[in-house]
Amino acid sequence: MAEKSGKVKADRKRYSKKEMQAHVLEVLRLLDEEYGADDIIYLSHENPWQLLIAVILSAQCTDARVNMVTPSLFREFPDIRAFAEADVEKLEEAIHSIGFFHAKARNIIGCCRKLLEDFGGEVPDTMDELLTLPGVGRKTANVILGNIYRKPSIVVDTHVKRISKKLGFTEETEPEKVEYALMEILPKGHWIRYNMQIITLGRTVCTARKPDCTHCFLREECPSREA
Prior knowledge:
The protein is an all-alpha fold and 227 residues long. The protein folds into two domains: 5-37 and 153-221, Helix-hairpin-Helix base-excision DNA repair enzymes (C-terminal) (Endonuclease Iii, domain 2); 48-147, Hypothetical protein, domain 2 (Endonuclease III, domain 1, Orthogonal Bundle). The chain contains eleven helices and no strands. 37% of the residues are buried.
């Protein structure tokens, strides 16, 4: 590397292009070394529509909690039409242990109705089409594009936004702007797995409340590390 990245300045605007490229590649190398280079998603699913519903349910909720609910949920509602025709109160009861279940139930029913009406019961494979579905924002759409259709995409959640800034990858704070900033500096081949690697890091080491900088494998590459 042109410069030991532990000395790289936290202000991304002061990086040279060469320094930023070296810093990014070293971080990605260390992430792959620690977590592997496979693209992994922790939400259990067997097909695209199940993943779509699981991601809608996962908003402001842990993947573990969603995975506790979806097995029985998908038995009770075995296809898109069953969800589209579901009684909202019955669906709310099935997902009541998940936060914001009132809104999520309405969104899931609306989403599945639109899938049937506009997309022949298939989950669409473009950002613009996915964003027409109730309950689907860019984060959900990117999960589908990346993990179902293998289209390079960057999912920005709270962990990705927070840790990407700590690493000096971006100074943006709005999720969509963070997404575009990361698209500029991350190799496309790493876009999909970057999210899951950073989520894992954020849940286990670089937590929001108490980051464990001492034991972080990215310590020497993080300009925001604690002394």
